[in-house]
């Protein structure tokens, strides 16, 4: 929540190349140390790390270093089966929708984090902001897929078909997730308020 709010506060919604540009490693390393210490109010974030690109990189890195991705390893095949053509699925597979996967299979915390990210991204690719950041939903899905869903198989060889399925799944999630429930909106609003009052001034 902190990183997404800082990304928004620093103009990430209207910044061309967001999520695609790098930043100095020294700044990232310093920021990561502070984040690991939960030192969100450190002046480094308000006076030094003022580029939205830095927060975009930090957000991607945070997703990437999770021991278990936002789409857990145990649900990797279930997620891709939503996208796979019927001919490639097990005969006993029961088709489910993306919404069913999110709300019934995904752990609640993962579900809320992903929906919070999606709520932010939907602001990114509004018609007004797309004219400025030059990003459409396909761009976000391509950039973020590898940080949100990945296999834990030891074979690290790049499987192009598998990568396409991962990107297609994430793009489907970004496009099809409906509005938040009242409870989810309340949780996110309260969490945002707490962060804004304490760390995002």
CATH topology: Phosphatidylinositol 3-kinase, Chain A
Percent of sequence in beta strands: under 5%
Distinct helical segment count: 11
The general outline is globular
N-to-C CA distance: 14 Å
GO molecular function: GTPase activator activity
Pfam families: RhoGAP (PF00620)
InterPro entries: Rho_GTPase_activation_prot, RhoGAP_dom
Domain Rho-GAP: 1-181
Primary descriptors:
201 residues; mainly alpha; Phosphatidylinositol 3-kinase, Chain A; 11 helices; globular; GTPase activator activity; RhoGAP_dom; Rho-GAP domain-containing protein; Rho_GTPase_activation_prot
Brief overview:
The chain has 201 residues and is mainly α. The chain has helices at 2-9, 25-36, 43-48, 52-65, 76-81, 98-105, 108-124, 127-133, 137-148, 160-176, 182-198. The chain has one domain (2-198): Phosphatidylinositol 3-kinase, Chain A (Orthogonal Bundle).
Report on the structure:
The chain is mainly α. It has a single domain (2-198), classed as Phosphatidylinositol 3-kinase, Chain A. It is 62% helix and 0% strand. It contains eleven helices and no strands. It has helices at residues 2-9, 25-36, 43-48, 52-65, 76-81, 98-105, 108-124, 127-133, 137-148, 160-176, 182-198. The longest helix is centred in the middle third of the chain and has 17 residues, at 108-124.
